[in-house]
Amino acid sequence: MARDAIDSALADPLALVQEQAAWISEIYDQALAFVVAYAFDIVGALLVLLAGYVVARWLGRVTLRFQERRNVDITLRLFIAQATRTAVLVLFLIIALGKVGISVTPFVAAIGGLAVGASFALQGPVSNYGAGMLIILTRPFKVGDTIRVLEQAGVVESIHLAATLLTNEDGERITIPNKHIVGEVLTNSWEHRIVEGTVGISYGDEPEKAIEVLRAVLAADPAVAATPPPQVGIQAFGDSAVDIAYRYWVPTKQYFEVQYRVNLAVWSAIRDVGLTIPFPQRDVHLLSPGSEGAH
Questions:
Q1: Alpha-carbon distance 233 to 58, whole Å?
Q2: What are the start-end ranges of the E strands in 102-241?
Q3: Which of 6, 8, 84, 150 is 20 to 30 A away from residue 229, measured at CA?
Q4: What's the predicted TM-score (pTM) here?
Q5: Distance between CA 228 and CA 249 in Å, rounded?
């Protein structure tokens, strides 16, 4: 049959052209009839959409300015403004569809079904957004603070609804999903981090002298914060040495740099004033086979 149709078309090309022209003319007539019948409805729907776009933009700007006057967090106010614009556009879209006789009930049912299915697939992102909203509202930290969570530490560069971005001294960017921040143990040390160190001195040395030397070393370094002041004191009495501990605050982005510099300065100062950092010692008593019975 297909072979016969092709042969017939080749034999009479004029008939083929006339058939295609008639088909195009029929489609054109149907489209024209539709436009004539629904012209006013289509124009009305377009005007509704245009009005919705204008109203959504205006309402979004008003919402944003209102939140700015209330000093609402920038991430939260941008989210609320965008949500307001989207809600207004969706409302006007539903009205426009009704103008051309399209029922929105099937769309609502379909969206509901998709929402149920998507809720399982989007549990992670949705929980991140919920946690982000909670962080913005409760403000346990802000941009510029130093936080430590999930064995990660860094300066907060930005807070988004889905994740919080940190940077560290090495210039690395750490992205932490917000659901892993809310509900976890969070340490906020603001713009500083604390450094802790220990040095042992001989039991024959004066601990007051060692404490004085360490305080002088910490006071001489410009990167060591004066407030809160450094802490120096006896931490423990070890087997071979008296352990002198020192704690001080440094800018987060200089943590390791200052720590290494202070440790070297501590070593040099201890040596220069004649204090001794003893080696670990252990006394071993050797008993001859007959010595045990002699006692």
A1: 63
A2: 146-149, 152-159, 163-167, 173-177, 187-190, 192-201, 231-237
A3: 150
A4: 0.61
A5: 7
